[in-house]
Amino acid sequence: MKLTIDQIKYIKENRVLDRIDVGHAVSTYIGETETIAYSLFSLLAKRSFWVRYSSEKSSQITELYTVVHGEIEVQYEGKTFFLREGDTLDASNYSELLSFYSEHEVEIFVEMSVDEFETNFKNTELVQRDAAAIERVDGYTYHHCSRIKDYSIELWKKLEQPVERVTKLRWGAYFHDIGKLAVPIEILNKKGKLTAQEWCIMKTHSAIGAQMMRNHEVKWLRDSAYIVEEHHERFDGKGYPNGLKEEEISLEAAIVSVVDSFDAMITNRIYREAFSIEEAIQEIVRGRGTQFNPVVVDAFLKLLHDQQFKWR
Ligand SMILES: [Fe+2]
Question: Would you state the CATH architecture of domain 139-306?
Fold first, then answer.
């Protein structure tokens, strides 16, 4: 059953509702029938929201998103487009991550199969509470985290790795810097050079991040802990926290290392101006075989070439 926009507005105004506040968004549980759960999702300006693909999805799954107020950017099945008030996206059969982003505050009405709502939607909200916290402390944006995830997956495919195993990389890439939540904000956003002691603190973020992932209340994040732990290891063994080298470093972490370094270089940060794409490429090539796994660098250059050196 699809509700009309007037019915949705009526429900919104006339029911006492349970709310889950995850910082950048508020999810309001409205109620459910035997098969469908209804909720209203309010997303703050310049914030993202995504829904994880569930491999257990069956053909009976319902997953509808209707914009009640505002306009939202959607990434769905490799396409980016906008939904406006009254538009509905039927995402019942998506095969990848579904993500939303909005410049302004927006409200979405969600109709979802009860099982799907219980197993995935609620967990996804908990995960996003962490994602939003990282965005806040690190000054990175949704688009940055999203790019690291997307390009890591592209690189994985370019290296002809099995797509069934991409899930760990997806979450490891997205949360590689989760450990920064434990680093003082003055160090994260310091304008000048870090002192030796501040560097020591900064460098704890990969080990602490791995610990956070291992203990995460959302089970499917735990399997990605090793990627978070290894994302600052170097091919020549001079990285941290464990000084792993060459093949001792997982391919997933070697991928995140290249993509994250590149994206960080071409992004304006509080402490320095962005490099041009050409300069960033030179830096990656300079690190081939020392900082970075050479096989990953070669695939990365091919990927950039295929995309005409454009970086989203
Ligand atoms: Fe990091």
Answer: Orthogonal Bundle (1.10)
